[in-house]
Automatic annotation (TrEMBL):
<dbReference type="GO" id="GO:0061504">
    <property type="term" value="P:cyclic threonylcarbamoyladenosine biosynthetic process"/>
</dbReference>
<feature type="domain" description="THIF-type NAD/FAD binding fold">
    <location>
        <begin position="12"/>
        <end position="235"/>
    </location>
</feature>
<dbReference type="InterPro" id="IPR045886">
    <property type="entry name" value="ThiF/MoeB/HesA"/>
</dbReference>
<protein>
    <submittedName>
        <fullName>tRNA threonylcarbamoyladenosine dehydratase</fullName>
    </submittedName>
</protein>
<dbReference type="GO" id="GO:0008641">
    <property type="term" value="F:ubiquitin-like modifier activating enzyme activity"/>
</dbReference>
<dbReference type="Pfam" id="PF00899">
    <property type="entry name" value="ThiF"/>
</dbReference>
<dbReference type="GO" id="GO:0061503">
    <property type="term" value="F:tRNA threonylcarbamoyladenosine dehydratase"/>
</dbReference>
<dbReference type="InterPro" id="IPR000594">
    <property type="entry name" value="ThiF_NAD_FAD-bd"/>
</dbReference>
<dbReference type="InterPro" id="IPR035985">
    <property type="entry name" value="Ubiquitin-activating_enz"/>
</dbReference>
Amino acid sequence: MEDTAWLSRTELLIGRQKLEKLMSSHVLVVGLGGVGSFAAEFICRSGVGEMTIVDGDIVDPSNRNRQLPALATTHGQSKAEIMAERLKAINPELKLHVIKDFVKPEAVAEILSGNYDYVIDAIDSVTPKLTFMKAAYDKGLRIVSSMGAGGKVDPTLLKVDDISKSYNCPFAQQVRKMLKKEGIYKGIKVVFSPEETDKNSLMLTDGSNYKKSAYGTVSYMPATFGATAASVVIRDLIAI
């Protein structure tokens, strides 16, 4: 029989019936960087019984300022493998599926073939993100998507709303524009910050994995985006 003593504080807050709903739910988290790694941990610690995590990247030294799997001792290791070990250490009875692959457009259909109750999109490259969001939308999956956490410093300004109502976020603007070309104008929940982006923190990258540029980030901002996305999933699953 499953040991739920470690969830006693959660049960105290939401009650046994809602806890059992979380325990019977399956959540997909795509992208295990600064946003997704924290989102995955919070989903696991909430008592969700089944998870699928997706990431093909390895830990880079520059990840250590904001990503849960990134330590001085984990450089070069698979983020998905580190997070899998961590999630199973939190809940040994978690039914966990691990996909160690980048979200290439051609892989999206296979990733979304599972039976998910909710999806967290923490992809930080526009082309794979767009492909993923459109596919999840077309399948009618419940999804919450993280917009840009870079170039921002005030976590108290975060908002959750429909993609059509996001503003002051260059990343969201780009995503909205591309979704409109696909005939999608609304119907996807997003976490975003309307704080003015510090454009002086922009840097160009080598373009690998569909990512051509990035903004500077500070430790707590991506984590707050991840926590907010996880809260959306948990609250929606148990109808709070």
